[in-house]
Fold this protein.
Amino acid sequence: MSPEKIKQWLLSLQNRICQMVTDEEGERQFIEDAWTHTQGGGGLTRVLTEGAVIEKAGVNFSQVHGRALVAAATARHPDLVDCPFEAMGVSVVIHPRNPYVPTTHANVRFIQVTRKDGSHHSWFGGGFDLTPYYGFQEDCQHWHDEAKAACDPYGHEVYPRFKKWCDDYFYLKHRNEPRGIGGIFFDDLYEWDIEKSFAFMCDVGNHFISAYQPILRRRKSLPYGERERAFQRYRRGRYVEFNLIYDRGTLFGLQSGGRTESILMSLPPAVEWKYDWHPEPGSKEAELTEVFLKRTD
Amino acid sequence: MSPEKIKQWLLSLQNRICQMVTDEEGERQFIEDAWTHTQGGGGLTRVLTEGAVIEKAGVNFSQVHGRALVAAATARHPDLVDCPFEAMGVSVVIHPRNPYVPTTHANVRFIQVTRKDGSHHSWFGGGFDLTPYYGFQEDCQHWHDEAKAACDPYGHEVYPRFKKWCDDYFYLKHRNEPRGIGGIFFDDLYEWDIEKSFAFMCDVGNHFISAYQPILRRRKSLPYGERERAFQRYRRGRYVEFNLIYDRGTLFGLQSGGRTESILMSLPPAVEWKYDWHPEPGSKEAELTEVFLKRTD
């Protein structure tokens, strides 16, 4: 398994995700920014903004070389300290305009470290998760079904493990609240051989598209008004809080001299913070936290 | 110097700052929330929102007891590990509606730790800083003059030292950009006797009011339109980035189980993120980063 083959697959995934978004968007196209990383490597950021359906979407490919992983990444692997690495991945955030369409995030990544003796240690990571503003049982069911379908060929223990990892990761401790309804999340995946891990990463990427596109399609034309937009702006504040306080990819990216605009393209376009605001009990806004953000199976 | 005397002064400062804000606001009043901390103590949060002049202002008094300071706070004082402490302070963030009025932040705080042998170690911290959207030389001059006036009675080295500390602290490394035009910042102040330190903290609090009120008064009625509001929402994104990524008070507060709504009352009401946006060179928006956010004396 050559890194080049993985890179080509990642670039094709980026294309297919952008195609899915523009198919549903209809009006606007992605703009592209190629950039280079200070330590070597670079990326191709693709961003679509102010569309009819999509308020902001970022689909970023990056391939970064470095002389050493950050301390947090080598804590469990002391043999990898001060070893050069290559990291590549695709990350996606889609903020639709219609508040009835959930925001979504997906990421797949491959990291390869070259030890002092020339041998390699490599692993995969990734996943996808969904952040609705208004809940629909049908959408949640479909989302989790697709997540399960991506995992099941790799063993029956895979889905429950990576689903729980997702729930644990996308959690705002200071709010005592999950970021959304979850999905799957995995990291440090090297226990399988590289072919199996790569196949799994491909399945995760493919199932992200089949998980999100039907939801986007069936909710994008629902009528909404200022009430729903205001709630969407308010809830997007939680998204910002998560990404800037907890998200490891965001914080490591900023600390390691990554391209700020590509990293922070995940932030929502328009956001509001209101002091100690709570939706009316029993309202459709209250249903989000009372029903959909409760942990269930 | 009893903690009770410091507390009474902090409560009076909170009152005077709220009075200054409502004097300039004219329409809306502060609401009050008294709250208790999980580890003991509590606070009085006062928030004014959706005013004619003030879009959001928070003036928070808090007094928190704890069994031990966080590790970062005892790194330079190993004799204070696992010693109970008391922390009290007032923190202020004012987000005016008019984009020609800068956002401001101020904070004064007192921490007292009781060592195992019953002796005390206590220190003061605080400061104030200004975050304009559009720059006015006259306002910057007045702001820094007041900051200097607060410091000069305590020694000529005080102002340059605490001004630099402010510039260093309120800096967004991932943007290579200061948050605003600075002011003064100090922490761990125990090198003076407690009377002198307390007097200094009082001067800092008093000069914050005389630094900000004239700026608020002379800019609050300037005409503005959607262009200026959009730029204000965009620049407020930087404020959110600083507070959630770097600000120690915010992060320690959230980690130590502080009251989330009181801590995050510092976040601006309406914010926008735009991908890789830059103001037109030579525009009054570009002047902010090209002139006012350059470090000068």
